[in-house]
């Protein structure tokens, strides 16, 4: 079965070879390549060949493919410290409307290379958390 692609999607064009890329690993389901706007040396992207905008829209079999590909890339890079990042939607920092997973090496503790994030954790109200837990469980 051929992958669904979107004519205007930059990642679909990369998969089809219409835009050149520094390809790393290609499987039946995934295509990976070096990011041309890297946060650090070795920053790579792993994308499904099937055009899908958000992760929850992907078939489950793809998710079983993407992490082994990301793992192989991290190992090949010799990345002892790295982030696997995946964003869904504009306010969650998704810039390209095609699911993609970043493999971002973090070579040093400085904020000069790799992913730089804040983690604005909040104290949860345990009663609210318990109620919310039950609500989510009822939908799983």
TrEMBL record:
Name of a matching Pfam family: HIT
Active site per UniProt: 100 (tele-amp-histidine intermediate)
GO molecular function per UniProt: catalytic activity
Biological processes, Gene Ontology terms: nucleotide metabolic process
Stretches of the chain forming a coiled coil according to its record: none
UniProt motif (Histidine triad motif) ranges: 98-102
Chain ranges of the HIT domain: 10-114
Database matches in PANTHER family: ADENOSINE 5'-MONOPHOSPHORAMIDASE HNT1, HIT FAMILY PROTEIN 1
Name of this protein: Adenosine 5'-monophosphoramidase
Organism: Cerrena zonata
